[in-house]
Design brief:
There is one protein chain. The protein is mainly alpha-helical and 314 residues long. Helix content is 83%, strand content 0%. The protein has 2 domains: 149 residues; 105 residues, no CATH class.
């Protein structure tokens, strides 16, 4: 009787996954949003069952994915199915929300990297190379337009800017992939966890963003990476250069996150409206000088625990 109930529940969840997968693949506009709900059936099943049943569920999902979306369906199962399974299993084990985010992000990232390698080796499709080629073509069109308008003096400057941009995209591709994986998993949790609670899954909530405080060790890693970059002066294009540049970029993003959290804490203390908080966040993303100031705030907050000092003054 118990096995029959599990089979019924699994069949319903697989049917739901098949519908979500079809909408994601064949209805692009809606699929952008539904894309983040794909892990939900796997999350629910993994949170309620043992490894043996979860393995069988994944195998069944593999066949369903191939029928619904061929190789595209299998790829989406590989990324979102595995990520949802890891989330559900960790929820079953009552792991912390941070542990859930880190483990799920690593799973998502590993799945994306494996798919990227497979696409390069078997399908001869290199996404980063294609993006670089498209950017070069766009740059060439801009140069031709300036030439036709008679603005020869601006071509050299534009060419240099485009070359620097292409180098930056190629260099920071790994860190961009890591940060996008973390962001994707965060959005997945934000959408799927409230839905999972309706199906009896004990998915804990995040605390307030203003109370976020990253480990102080991140500040030491950041300072060490910056010092290594200044002292070693790695040659551009080497593995050491790529590793240090990506490490510094990722840690800078964490400092910005800490800085934004500290700002939100101050805004809460001073009863500043939520609208201003949103404006500051947008400015931080759009205007580099704001991003720099917020990063400095994050470094100071981690190093000197500004919140406690502000709290004491209050």
């Amino acid at each position: 009787m118990k096995n029959a109930r599990k089979l019924t529940e699994g069949a319903i969840l697989l049917a739901a996954f098949a519908v979500l997968l079809l909408l994601t693949i064949y209805v692009p506009v809606i699929g952008i949003i539904i894309n983040f709900v794909l892990p939900l059936p796997f999350l629910i099943f993994a949170a309620k069952n043992n490894i043996k049943y979860v393995g069988a569920f994944l195998v069944a999902g593999l066949f369903i994915s191939f029928i619904a979306g061929s190789f595209m369906g299998i790829a989406m199962l590989f990324v979102y199915g595995l990520t949802g399974t890891v989330m559900g299993y960790l929820l079953q084990k009552n792991r912390s929300r941070i542990a859930l985010l880190v483990s799920s992000s690593l799973t998502f990232l590993a799945a994306v990297i494996i798919l990227y390698v497979v696409s390069v080796i078997f399908f001869k499709f290199n996404l980063i190379h294609e993006l670089t080629v498209a950017f070069k073509e766009s740059a060439a069109m801009s140069q031709n337009m300036l030439q036709s308008l008679g603005k020869e003096d601006q071509i050299a400057k534009l060419t240099e800017q485009n070359n620097n941009m292409i180098k930056m995209v190629s260099t920071l591709a790994p860190s961009a992939l890591i940060m996008s994986s973390i962001l994707s998993v965060y959005i997945i949790q934000l959408i799927c966890f409230p839905l999972a609670r309706r199906f009896g899954v004990n998915a804990q909530q995040w605390g307030h963003f203003k109370d976020l405080s990253l480990p102080r060790s991140l500040l030491w890693y950041y300072l060490i990476a910056m010092a290594a970059n200044m002292l070693l002066h790695p040659q551009e294009g080497t593995y050491l250069y790529l590793a240090l540049m990506n490490l510094v970029y990722i840690l800078e993003m964490f400092m910005v996150l800490q800085g934004l959290s500290f700002l939100f804490y101050i805004f809460h203390q001073k009863s500043v409206t939520k609208g201003l908080r949103v404006i500051i966040t947008i400015l931080a993303i759009v205007i580099p000088i704001f991003l720099y100031i917020i990063r400095i705030l994050g470094i100071i907050d981690l190093g000197f625990d500004l919140r406690k000092r502000v709290g004491k003054k209050e």
